[in-house]
Design a protein that fits this description.
There is one protein chain. Helix content is 8%, strand content 23%. It has one helix and six strands.
Amino acid sequence: KIVDGASWLIEGRVMMRINSTAEWGYVCSDKFKDTDFGPLATCHSVGLLGIHEASFLPMPLPSLDHPINLDDVDCQVNDTFIQNCSHNPVGVHNCYDGGREISGVKCVIPPEMW
């Protein structure tokens, strides 16, 4: 899911859970911002399949109020959903920089989808 964003422009911190009973946790990755593939896969994962644009959005946190579920997420052109991207084992991370590596995305919805 994407949290803390505007209603007309889906943007915010990326959170995911590993299965339907697991706790929601953040996605933390410095690799996530290297290409648009990670943000695009994230937007697709939340059901925004016809988006106009996807981009990395840095989202610093005042505190880490949820666990970090995924780190070093590295999406490639064929990764349609964030679950398909390579990443560290669940819960294994090196995201200690005050939450500054928490991944955020901006999914721009084309006007015809409003």
